Amino acid sequence: MNSPQKRRIASVGILVSLCGLLLLVSRDTIGAERQFKRKECLDCHTAFSKKYNGMKNVHSIVKEGKCEECHLRHGIVPKLLLKSEGDQVCLKCHAKEKIGLSKGKIHSAFQKGGCTICHNPHASAADHLLKEEGSALCYRCHEKGIYESKVVHQVVMKEGCRRCHSAHGADEKNLLVKPDPALCLACHQGNTPTFRKGHGGYPVEKASCSTCHNPHTSIQPKLLKASLHVPVREGGCDSCHQPPSSGKPFDVTLKKADLCWQCHEIGKLKDGDREHAPFRSGECLSCHNPHASGYGKLLAAGGNKLCTACHAEKGAKVAFPHRAVSEGRGCLDCHKPHAGKERKLLTRKEEELCFACHADTKELRKKKNVHVPFAENECGSCHDPHGSNLKGQIKTRMDTLCFSCHAESEKKFSVNYGHKPVEKGLCVACHAPHGTDERKLLKKDGPDLCIQCHGKMMGKPSGGTDHEPFASGMCLECHESHGSNQAGMIRSKQGILCFTCHKELKKGMEKGISKHVSAVQGECTKCHNPHKSNLRRLLLANSPEICFSCHKEIRARMTAEKVHQPAARDCLRCHQPHYSGEAALIAQPIQALCGTCHDYKDKSFQKAHLYIEAPAMDCRNCHNPHSSKDPKYFKDTIHPPFAGRSCEDCHVVEKR
Question: Domain tally for the chain?
Answer without folding.
Answer: 1
